[in-house]
Specification:
alpha/beta, two-stranded parallel sheet, TIM Barrel, nine-stranded parallel beta sheet
Length: about 270
């Protein structure tokens, strides 16, 4: 089955708190949200002007907010630079434990920006170290790490596979991002999804406007959010067909930039489903 969820980025430009963002997602009709988590404390989310959740909070308090709005969590947006283990190892391990305590079993990440002084060979050693440490914790907690195409090495199917294959673990899967894979420009989105569908654990449903496509395709490796699903270049009927063929339960976590786009995305995808 395919379920509809939304990444909390849809309320970022509306200066809304996590709790208010969850309430808005439920009002639109989404069944799932994908919270973004951070370490420590920062001003905007503490003042309830930003949707990110601190992992210093009680995870069951976060779950209570979702439960109170009849919303489930599809996964955590826990993106961290895998080539920088001084940041990513402890962050990912904490995100995994935080997710497991809430009953969430996917944590999503991408390779992140690389250090400006390392070689490609060094980067792969560092990524293997990070993913090995994180996968051990994920395995103990029954959580899966969803690797997403974004940044320098994962912008092609071969590049994403090269990171995925660094660690042989059932605790590592693919979080496919339709927008990032399209903007990278070197591969057919649908062929790429077919290639990874047996490893798919989560999907970022991100559409790309024709304007952004003309300006950026082949020049960037991804984008934070896209336009409303159905307003851009992605063939959602085709995407749905490929995902349905997996026989898995997968959440489409919409990544768009405004509440209005979230509404239009929900309406478009609901009709197709």
């Amino acid at each position: 089955m395919i379920k509809l969820g939304i990444n909390m980025e849809f309320v970022r430009h509306h200066d809304m708190s996590f709790a208010n963002g969850v309430k808005k997602a439920a009002e639109i009709g989404y069944e799932y949200v994908e919270p973004m988590v951070h370490l420590g404390r920062e001003l905007l989310s503490e003042a309830e002007y930003f949707h990110s959740v601190s992992m210093y909070n009680d995870p069951l308090f976060i779950k209570e907010i979702c439960d109170g709005n009849n919303i489930k969590m599809s996964g955590l947006s826990s993106h961290t630079p895998l080539c920088k283990p001084e940041i990513s190892v402890e962050y990912l391990k904490q995100a995994i434990r935080f997710a497991a305590e809430m009953g969430v079993y996917v944590v999503n990440t991408d390779e992140g920006p690389k250090p400006d002084w390392t070689t490609e060979e060094m980067d792969y050693v560092l990524m293997k170290y990070t993913l090995t440490e994180a996968a051990k914790v994920a395995g103990r907690h029954g959580v899966v790490i969803g690797l997403e195409p974004h940044q320098q090495y994962s912008k092609t199917p071969e590049g994403l596979d090269s990171i995925y294959n660094l660690v042989k673990s059932s605790s590592i899967g693919i979080n496919f991002d339709t927008g990032n894979s399209y903007l990278a420009g070197g591969s057919d989105v649908y062929e790429w999804l077919e290639r990874v569908k047996s490893r798919l654990v989560h999907l970022h449903a991100k559409d790309i406007s024709m304007k952004q496509s003309n300006a950026e395709r082949g020049k960037v490796t991804g984008t934070p959010v896209g336009c409303a699903c159905g307003d851009g270049v992605v063939d959602w009927k085709r995407i749905i067909g490929i995902v349905k063929s997996t026989g898995k339960d997968i959440v489409f976590s919409v990544e768009c930039g405004t509440i209005d786009q979230a509404v239009r995305s929900f309406e478009h995808l609901s009709k197709l489903l």
